[in-house]
Amino acid sequence: MASDAEEDRQQEEEKPFAVERAKTGRAKCKKCKCPIEKDQIRIGKFVTNFFSEGKLMPAWHHVTCLFDVFAKQRATTKKIDDPAEDVKGWDQLSDDDRKVILDKLVEFEKTCNYPKLILRKRLIFSKSR
């Protein structure tokens, strides 16, 4: 039987995104290819690690760049719906850092072309066929 700590760790690993302040400034944003400066907020989307079979690694983005990527993705592609549930490291962020991301999330939801209600209707319709 797994301990509570192990279960928490497994749940953290299953989150599709991660957020933190950049540790060194060497990572580059996957969208704009510019360096993410040291101590700047960065969000990573977990993708397949080509160097280690079956493992995932974060593809880091500037906060603004990640939401630009979301705007161009398919409606069915995983996006951040609830940061507390979807983002590893959310609890470690300061309130100011959380506000920056939440403001971008609200702005994205206002401007995106596919409201959640439409997406849900599409998914329900496709399952009923």
TrEMBL record:
GO cellular component, one term: DNA ligase III-XRCC1 complex
Keywords: Ligase, Metal-binding, Nucleus, Zinc, Zinc-finger
GO molecular function per UniProt: DNA binding; DNA ligase (ATP) activity; zinc ion binding
One BP term from GO: double-strand break repair
InterPro entries: ATP-dep_DNA_ligase, Znf_PARP, Znf_PARP_sf
Main location: nucleus
Residues annotated as domain PARP-type: 17-109
Location in or out of the cell: Nucleus
Family membership: Belongs to the ATP-dependent DNA ligase family.
UniProt-recorded name of the protein: DNA ligase 3-like
Organism field: Pogonomyrmex barbatus (red harvester ant)
Gene transcribed to yield this protein: LOC105426005
